[in-house]
Structure prediction request, 249 residues.
Amino acid sequence: MKRKRKLNQNNYYSAEADRQFFSVSQYKDFMKCEAMAMAKIRGEYKPEMTKAMLTGSFVDSYFEGTLDAFIKEHPAVFTRKQELRSEFKKANEIIARIQGDETFMRFMSGEKQRIMTFELFGLPWKMKMDSYLPGICITDLKVVQKFRTLPLWRYELQGAVYQKGVELVTGEHLPFYLAVATKERTIDLDIFQITQPVLDIALREIEQNIEHYARVKEGQEEPVYCGKCDYCKSVKDARIRNYSELLEG
Ligand SMILES: [Zn+2]
Prediction:
């Protein structure tokens, strides 16, 4: 195995780091579309951040203590009249709501953006934790539309890798929590524990899929094009199709 560069806050999201290490988000890219995941790794495809993602990162960077840098990087946070755009006003409201909640703040009181690298299933992985309380727990902050949509994002995959990563690096088996605030008109907030059986199943699922993804990543197997995602649409050739296909739903 090639010598791995040490990761820090500056190179964690670099193309080189993505080539060298698996991460939960790269794994999820492969789940969605192997061709898209590979295009991202090659640096050929960079999907733009959606408004929803930006609101989340605004809140994330506040708690990281990097909000100034975030605003510099995303001048679109402000309107031409130098007012906060509405989605970031909501982000500010969410920050204030979180800060007023003792339990939420306790879970967010750990070490911020702690990076760990480790070998899992024979492959190098990287991860970055929102709030790490050694000996106590791992917490990831999520800003979502509604609690109900949380499971759709498969956060148990993140929990499984983060828990295992901390265990491999420190020897400690810690519970994994999501600290969640919603963007609803009246903000809701709670701490959700992802229970051990759910984490165990998620880790097994990753174990079953990762070997194939690793072979694709190494160029030993051809990536599958899903044919439906934005990347696939952007590189496809037009086909001649039967109109009736569209009526079949
Ligand atoms: Zn695709």
About this structure: The first helix runs from residue 15 to 20. The pocket of zinc ion is lined by residues 33, 35-36, 225-226, 229, 231-232 (CB under 6 Å). The two ends are 47 Å apart (CA to CA). The chain is about 45% helix and 15% strand.
